[in-house]
Amino acid sequence: MTGADVLLLPGEPDPSVVRLMIFEVPAARALTRRQNNGDECVWCSAAEGLPPLCGPSAWRPHGCAPCRQIRVTYLRAYLAWKGHAQDCEPCRTEWCPDGWGLALAHGIAYEVAGKEEPVYCACGCPLSRTSRRLRPYVTDCLTGPRYSHTGPCTNPGAPASADEGTRR
Ligand SMILES: [Zn+2]
Ligand SMILES: [Zn+2]
Ligand SMILES: [Zn+2]
């Protein structure tokens, strides 16, 4: 799948995307009572057309369709880039022409979703969203989308396994 495909994919997201959606929802303490109760979109506070974002639980965050689509696109872009990077040797050490389209699509989706700059890698290093060293962190996304980087790590306390780029 190319970067353009990822950004323009229609239809409902697959389960791998749905599973990560909870990590895109702001923390409960950052939300209003109405947002925590599912009466308003957790991102824009719209009060209509709100499907639940996660499975049944005591906490019921909801999101409007446009806000949800922005996060679906971001998660699709992240997972597509990660899918490439985890099987790509150049991605671990250098700028990768084969991964470039996916990296670009990810960058667009990241920015449209209003996510923070800089991106903090799993090792603790801050990187610009446009950095050529930025990579997906290629282990299971148990705590949501995470990042790594190629090249030397500036965080001496980082465990080696937290940084794919320095593992040779
Ligand atoms: Zn919304
Ligand atoms: Zn690559
Ligand atoms: Zn680092």
Low confidence ranges: 161-168
Helix content: 25-40%
* Helix-strand sequence: HHHHHHEEEE
From the N-terminal CA to the C-terminal CA, the straight-line distance is 28 Å
pLDDT averaged over residues: 88
**What's the number of helices?**
6
Shape: globular
Which sequence of strands runs across the widest sheet?
A: 1-2
Main sheet characteristics: 2 strands, antiparallel
Instruction: Please report which band the strand proportion falls in: under 5%, 5-15%, 15-25%, 25-35%, 35-45% or over 45%.
Output: 5-15%
- Give the beta-strand count: 4
Multimerization state: single chain
Write the layout of secondary structure elements.
Blueprint: H1 3-8, H2 15-20, H3 33-36, H4 65-85, H5 89-93, H6 97-112, E1 119-120, E2 126-127, E3 134-136, E4 147-149
One zinc ion binds next to loops.
